[in-house]
């Protein structure tokens, strides 16, 4: 799966949430493999530019879109499509998590957390996948890679983040449905389910746990967090479409900490 064995030069890849963490790592990997990369970000333009700094100017397009706004995902898709008149790969990575919103919260907080989480983590990527499938069927195929989470299999350790776990399960299900429903039209769809990846989001999770970062690491089989670049290597490999019959699979990246 090393980039030197991959050639994405003929592909246009849309990466959502590309300004940090897994999305930034995927942007770097896709660019190194020769792809034209649509670098989506919500607010952090500097982070997006840093992630894409090694990609030549003619092979990258920065698109801003706050998925908390209902129409943003559609606008991001249309800007991405207008750039080169095609998108070959959609990598759904952008997501948010709130470390509040559990069953004991007030009704106001519960409603707010669920509404924001579902808008960003479900409705926006669902709209992007809808547009992608429509487009892929017209051009003869394409690839969707959804970055989900191991919480869809094991639940969230912190029950206050129940909305996040539910949202990741929802988008995984849609990705699997697309894989089954459009396989004969060469629409390939994969799910990556990372464990504790070394990102800002995981650090926020660790801050809610006894022992913090070190305490979380002690509970992992390898005793270490997953490097974002390992997830990026896998996502870039999937973007190549090299193993078509892997479509529909959920691929675990958690260092043997959760085996199913």
Strand order of the largest sheet: 3-2-1-4-5-6-7
The CATH topology comes to Rossmann fold
The tally of beta strands, per DSSP, is 7
Assembly category: single chain
CATH superfamily descriptor: NAD(P)-binding Rossmann-like Domain
Distance between the termini: 23 Å
Rg over CA atoms, rounded to whole Å, is 17 Å
Q: In DSSP terms, counting alpha (H) and pi (I) runs of 4 or more, how many helices?
A: 9
Order of helices and strands: EHEHEHEHEHHEHHHE
State mean pLDDT (0 to 100 scale): 94
Taking the sheet with the most strands, its summary is: 7 strands, parallel
Beta-strand percent range: 5-15%
Low-confidence stretches: none
Which class in CATH terms?
Answer: Alpha Beta
Outline the structure in words.
There is one protein chain. With 260 residues, the protein is of the alpha/beta class. The chain has a single domain (3-253), classed as NAD(P)-binding Rossmann-like Domain (Rossmann fold), CATH 3.40.50. 44% of the residues lie in helices and 14% in strands. It is built from nine helices and seven strands, in the order E-H-E-H-E-H-E-H-E-H-H-E-H-H-H-E. Strands 3-2-1-4-5-6-7 form a seven-stranded parallel β-sheet, with helices on both faces. Helix 1 crosses helix 9 (228-239) and helix 3 runs parallel beside helix 4. The two termini are 23 Å apart.
